[in-house]
Design brief:
By secondary structure, the protein is an alpha/beta fold. It is 31% helix and 23% strand.
């Protein structure tokens, strides 16, 4: 039986690395623009690290992010929302019952757009074994439940929260083309695809490899300048909520 990949619709929006927290709340404005019709979309792709931290097991961050969680759930009843878990937000399925959640274990995932194969992932894949072990540990349900249990008066989560709010998101590479070539090679060695879209690296740049007829798009970090990407009329366009 042939497998038809899901379709990316014209008018889809892609947002990555918003790193939402009480000091960085522009993501709520983005969601409210969709809710009130100021920003129209056929699909919303949340490409990971939307929250500075969020997992279903940790009560402190669920409470802190409640307004944005509720807004995503409200919108998910009206439009299709697809959430690619990142390294800051995971174990989300039960938090977003109407959202199509893609854990790291099933990334990258192939979609179809304009008769082309498009591969989507947050971006923390094709990584060394040490990182893979680390990501498995931090996602462990029993460990997170235990950490939540010992987090009396939020002594642990407040430390994590303070550290995350101080973290700098700016990290532009000196040679993006070299970086993009390496990412394309990883994908070519693992999956047949023509277009790769990732977040995670905060670059907001496109690269085309004409030798293999491939395009690599690294999404901007919304948390830096409130930029996101729209697919419309067979083009990829970077936009901002300030436009």
């Amino acid at each position: 039986m042939s497998h038809n990949p899901p379709i990316i619709k014209d008018g889809a929006l892609f947002i990555a690395d918003a790193h939402f927290n009480p000091d960085r709340k522009e993501f709520l404005r983005f969601l409210k623009n969709i809710e009130n019709g100021n920003l129209n979309t056929t699909q919303l792709f949340l490409m990971g690290d939307i929250f500075d931290f969020l997992s279903n097991e940790i009560e402190y961050f669920k409470f802190q992010n409640k307004e944005a969680i509720d807004m995503i759930n409200k919108l998910s009843k009206e439009i299709e929302i697809l959430y690619f878990e990142g390294n800051h937000d995971y174990n989300l399925t039960s938090l977003f019952p109407n959202v199509k959640v893609f854990p790291r274990a099933i990334q990258p995932t192939i979609f179809s757009w304009d008769n082309k194969k498009v591969t989507l992932a947050h971006g923390d894949i094709f990584t060394p074994n040490g990182y893979n072990i680390y990501t498995a540990i931090i996602r462990n349900n029993f460990l997170l439940i235990f950490l939540n249990f010992i987090d009396k008066r939020n002594w642990l989560t407040k430390k994590i929260d303070f550290w995350l709010r101080k973290k700098q998101l700016h990290s532009l590479f000196n040679d993006f083309n070299h970086f993009a070539n390496r990412r394309l090679k990883y994908y070519r060695n693992n999956i047949d695809t023509q277009i790769i879209i990732e977040g995670h690296f905060h670059q907001g740049k496109f690269y085309q490899d004409k030798r293999f007829n491939q395009i690599y798009l690294n999404l901007p970090a919304f948390g830096i300048d409130q930029s996101y990407m729209m697919i419309q009329k067979k083009e990829f366009t970077l936009c901002s909520i300030h436009n």
